[in-house]
Amino acid sequence: MRDPRPQAARRARVLLIDDERALGDSMCIVLGDFHDVEYVARAREALQRLERDRAFDVILCDLMMGEMSGMEFYDRLRGMAPELA
Length: 85
Hints:
Structural class: alpha/beta
Number of strands: 3
Largest sheet: 3 strands, parallel
Helix content: 25-40%
Radius of gyration: 15 Å
Shape: globular
Order of helices and strands: EHEHEH
Distance between the termini: 41 Å
Number of helices: 3
Strand content: 15-25%
């Protein structure tokens, strides 16, 4: 007989990129109860982190950022680590 209780979901490792600190902090609070969230405010910092460690399940990235847009980040990520793009 199958156990009717729901299985606990696996915690995902999430990289969050957003240049608006208040929004980034809020997202960390919302997602942090269920997932392991690492937050960076700059896309370049995210790329540097991904050079050292690519073990993320999900990357959430703001599209409209000042220094490097989310679209530019995606293009660079696709060249650097296509398996994450």
